[in-house]
Design goal:
The chain is of the alpha/beta class and 268 residues long. It is 51% helix and 13% strand.
Length: 268
Amino acid sequence: MNNNNILFIGAGKMATAIAGGMIVSDFSAGQIKAFDVSKEAAEAFTLKTGVQAECKNLKPLIDKADTVILAVKPQHLSKVSRKAGITLNNKLVVSIAAGVKIERIKELTAAERIIRVMPNTPAMVNAGASAYALSDEVSETDEELVTAILKSIGTYTKLPESLMDAVTGVSGSGPAYVFDFIQAMADGGVNAGLPREAAMKLAAQTVMGAARLMLESGEHPAVLRDQVTSPGGTTAKALAVLESNSFKGIVIEAVLASVEHSIELGNK
């Protein structure tokens, strides 16, 4: 693993998060390189990770790489494709471009060994939830490399590619739903008289603690909810308001809207 040369194409926030996790895991800064057309992004990547990043001369970096991580937005993939004179046919290619299918990545890059990954932004604090899917040509060694990378930024789940759009709706976009929920809880606390800073801290810690309790206890969320809810109590009153406003239904609709758009992106 330590002799695998890894190149990030794209040096934005997610690439920075992944590289940062790798550095504090079993990877060395010397085996990782990055490229971004933005000089500012390349410099920020190096500053935060200690990994060399460049904004010119991509081809020599590709030539030296064993693994290429495509960390660019879906609409920018064509800029690192055969149309741009770039081929990755002998590389392991890892794509984190939302909605872009393995077959499309093959067409663009001429690569055969493709791993499609859907990470999320909590990877920035090594608490990410990632899912990945493989092309048929991926070897066991290739998969071990990628799971080691994903382990360095949180947890990971292997799934068939047909479910990757669903992953986007749940964990890919999910942090945004949670941030909105935290803000709403804090706003309620402020309306009830809490100082803004205290309300935000209490709300965020409550969400983090509740998630940890569920994961570590193995209990169904409905069981844990009932443990907090006394008949006729304050929590029961609050849950009744959420229910009357179709809280769960709205969240389900949001997830499905994200899934649908991920499918649309993949078909472009």
